[in-house]
Amino acid sequence: VGVAWIDVITGLNAANAILAALFKKERTGEATHIDISLWDCAIAALVNQAHNAMASGENPVAMGSAHPNLVPYRAFEAKDGWFVLGVGSDAQWATVVERLHLEHPEVAGAWSTNQGRVLGRDAVENCVASALALHNRSDLESMLEGVPCAPVNTVLEALADPQSVARQAITQHKGVDVLASPLRFMTPQNEKSDV
């Protein structure tokens, strides 16, 4: 991955714990010792994968970017690069079927429910992959409005994205471009960021 994600996740959890401890101190006057570990945060970050394993007694299998409980929910190859589609409901699936003009005998049958799509994962994903491969990522984003989806950007594409520009994700420090803090603090009278 190239990023120390567990360190980042632990830092975010530590910040939440510190805020909770400060809030408790303010309300009760009691100080709190915070015990946080990289291990605990890594285990907690397993979320649905850990719960699936505990419920089934089986280890999850490698699935790339696919979600184990929702189908289709992974990265697919579009005409001009990778594109993530995250169908989270049967209504979203119906939208995908309609807008991508999916044709398969099971589209309105077994695949109309997530359970049916999970059971037919390979066939569903092949059907969707064939349709997505015909379009550019930007066209797919427009076509699938209302369904969670997005292009998989390179780092430079993400930094140049209109949302990054609008949110001022890049700032300057001593004449050098750096990432801005994602935290924005605003006063009610002034919607311009104070930080």
Quickly describe the structure.
The chain is of the alpha+beta class.
CATH superfamily of the largest domain: formyl-coa transferase, domain 3
Question: Quick one: how many beta strands?
Answer: 5
CATH class of the largest domain: Alpha Beta
Main beta sheet strand tally, sense and closure: 3 strands, antiparallel
Report low-confidence residues grouped into runs of 5 or more. Answer: none
| Class from secondary-structure proportions | alpha+beta
Order of helices and strands: HHHEEHHHHEHHEE
What gyration radius follows from the Cα positions, in whole Å? 22 Å
| Strand neighbour order, sheet with most strands | 1-2-3
